[in-house]
Amino acid sequence: MIKKILFQDTSFRDGFQSIFGARAFTKDFIPAVEAAVAAGITHFEAGGGARFQAPFMYCGESAFDMMDAFRTAVGPDIRLQTLARGINVVALEQQPADMIDLHAKMFKKHGMTRIRNFDALNDFNNLIYSGQCIVDAGLEHEVVVTMMELPRGCSGAHDAEFYVNTLRQILDAGVPYSSVCFKDASGTSNPRKVHETFKAARKLLGDKVELRMHTHETCGTGIAQYLAAIEAGCDGVCVGRAPLSGGTAQPDLFSLWHALKGTDYDLDIDVEKIMEANVIAKECLKDYEFPPEALGIDTDVIFSPMPGGALTANTLMMRENKTFHRYPEVIKAMSECVARGGYGTSVTPVSQFYFQQAYANVMLGPWKKITDGYGNMVLGYYGKTPVSPDPEIVKIASEQMKKPVFTGDPIKDLEPGIPKAKKVLEENSLPVTDENIFIIGALATKGGNKGLDFLKGNFKVTVPKKDPNKPAATPAPTPAAAPVAATAPAAPIAARATGQNGRTYSVSVSGKTFELHVQPL
Fold this sequence. Notes:
By secondary structure, the chain is an alpha/beta fold. It has a domain at about 480-520. About 40% of the residues lie in helices and about 15% in strands.
């Protein structure tokens, strides 16, 4: 009996994030969404993650408007899914309880069906309240265990036993859920480990729970991971479609369809219709610049697990800062940051903590400057890391940041966010709506409030599109031939047959004649 494997099309969220740093205009891709629905695709990732922040910060658009347009394009019956980060929801800092609750209500209001919810530290305590808010808002809650491969020489977490124990803690805590996902943002987990994890998880969950996997093709093993998971009981996966698949993005839908031929599993797709939808997607995005590092595989991430969804955001930043030439050094330094930081999974926001610390270590010297995110993580302000961070790094962080180690609930003592956001809006004579309140709360940083900047029109659009005003590249001029004496004109290329069907060519270059013999293999 053939088992139908479910799939979510992540092209228009994780594909954008992994290739363009999440920077894409809504009007450019909505026709591609409509074409995908016409081709029979019924489940899309439609926002969340960095696709909440990026529209405001880089596109001059509201993420809520984008989600509304997505829902209008697909109609009422298609499943639209977003990504949330536990107590961080769609912000880079942990949010107070009232903002976590408002997040779920706003995403329900703007047409979403399901929220995939993870904690980068695999601290189940960070999923309890956020998961309950999602369910209370009338949304499906897909609870997540995050995965990656540890740097060489590291052990103590991120094996099958660790992942299943994390899942067991989630279940024992009573976190409400409609489905379970194992998420490998860097795509680095060994396929055998994936198989063992899913086999044990299926046994723990029973046969009726929808079990899914998410990975990236960044280091070239995404399809192998999916095959391993499917054979061990996985029900559904995340895939991208051309031109938003492969490389730093998700494994391609057709690649998986092809890999499943001759097995007991099938994707049940209309290949011809999806090929047509892919053509439309390519046309919609023909004016976008695809960075080369997003299009190929990078096996260095096996040793320094950099997620596809963060890689291009960071390389765009380094290009803008004129430091991209030092990217290989930063990736190498990231390995040490993972090894000494307590093994939080390299997925947003922890992947950014690792990268920012590695960048500082390269640019300023090892551990000369502890960055805020990394420092707060090793000190416990985001929750409990899978293993204890290196005591030396904890000491350095505590001294530099003048903060003690924290072992409590990361959101328990946070000041409510809604009253603070209302005050900001009122002080700036801006409408006090739930959307604006959430925008102010989610986009606040120590360097300012990007949400307030957006609402006041103070933003710069930086979407990686080709400049229509930039002149087309002209071919390099052909060097003029060196003058030759009138008595020695350049002879044309001539050829004569030689033995065994070979040919010898007489070639004249700058008045000199050479013989080139070509023998067939």
